[in-house]
Amino acid sequence: MNENFSRPSHDGNASLALGTPGEDFLRRVRRSAVHVLGDSTTGREVLELCEAHDEARRLVLEDRSSGHVVVAVVGATGQGKSWLIQQLIRSSPVAKSIVSGNNHDEATEKLTWIGPSPPADLDSVHENYLHCKAGDMQSIGATYVLVDAPGATEHRRSVATVAARALQLASVLVLVVRRDQIRSEAVGMLTHASEGTVVVPVVNAVRRRDDLLDADIDSLLHRMRKAAPTSVIAPAVIIEDFEVEERTPESVGPDAAERVANRLQAELGSSWEGDRRRSARLAALDARFRAALHSVLSGQLPSVTAAVKHLNDEALALPAEVAESLVGSGGPLRAAVR
């Protein structure tokens, strides 16, 4: 294990015990916000950024999956995430328990873990666990658990927060996007949030393979790599729409699962290096934290700095004013005092 990392604990303070440069910087920012900015709007905003960043670091560092690879399937609501998970575990009876829906009432609202063992410290408010034997899961060359994340573009804050947690927990992301949504800005937002990890794009519900599809996929991969330069963005997996021509769910599903699993195995085999990948994710988190701080403070610090300078000038002038009020401004009296 990389010497920069201690073995994570599950007491919620794993990141505080590390003493890494990123953690030291976070501690200094938090202390400065308390002592310098106080209970101001800017101070509260900086502290909120600190808490969110600390939680994100903790999720990356914690091994809640007993050493298994965590594959999070993410994307906007209605892209086919849950359907794809059903195909990856189609040999298991639990596949029928995976809820798939396109509207507000049916859409997934919790993180659902699927695999041979539950995660440590399961949060029953935001998470579910479905037991699935490793032998019933499509092979990717390693024991893994799947995470079915809620639609990441939901406007409800609680759902968006749960989806964000999946991004931090995952060893690899499978980003599902429908062919007709491939130009959506939400794809870039999700990729940016996943920076520092392995991302496998899956273009779903493709009705026709042509030059326009190739151009759109090339554009998608370019946007993803630009949004997350420290991520490993794999070539896209294309899944045909089974509602056209002679295709059926029974024919498309197994083929889709096999091709996604093969891509995962190839990417994990060439890119997954344990602590080095985790270190890259932490570095990406730290960079985003610094950028967010700059965004908050760049608009606020000029006025704060001016206020501090004014206060300092007043403090320096105060002794002279007090002395003058006591001894007067006359030349002889002032000379006598000297």
What does this structure look like?
With 338 residues, the protein is α/β, with parallel strands linked by helices. The protein folds into 2 domains: 91 residues, no CATH class; 209 residues, P-loop containing nucleotide triphosphate hydrolases (Rossmann fold, 3-Layer(aba) Sandwich). The chain has 9 helices and 8 strands. Strands 1, 2, 3, 4, 5, 6, 7 and 8 form an 8-stranded mixed beta sheet that branches. α5 links the parallel β5 and β6. α1 packs antiparallel against α2, α2 runs antiparallel to α8 and α5 packs parallel to α6. The longest helix is centred in the C-terminal third of the chain and has 53 residues.
CATH fold name of the largest domain, please? Rossmann fold
As for the number of domains, it is 2
Biggest sheet character: 8 strands, mixed
Low-confidence stretches: 1-19, 103-107
List how many beta strands DSSP finds.
8
pLDDT averaged over residues: 78
The first-to-last residue Cα distance is 70 Å
Topology as H/E string?
HHEHEEEHEHEHEEHHH
Radius of gyration: 27 Å
Keywords:
338 residues; alpha/beta; Rossmann fold; 2 domains; 9 helices; 50% helix; disordered N terminus
The gist of it:
The protein is an alpha/beta fold and 338 residues long.
Tell me the layout of helices and strands.
Blueprint: H1 21-37, H2 41-61, E1 69-74, H3 81-88, E2 111-115, E3 127-131, E4 144-148, H4 157-169, E5 172-178, H5 185-193, E6 198-206, H6 211-227, E7 232-233, E8 237-240, H7 249-271, H8 275-327, H9 331-337
Parallel strand pairs: 1-4, 1-5, 2-3, 5-6, 6-7, 6-8
Antiparallel strand pairs: 2-4
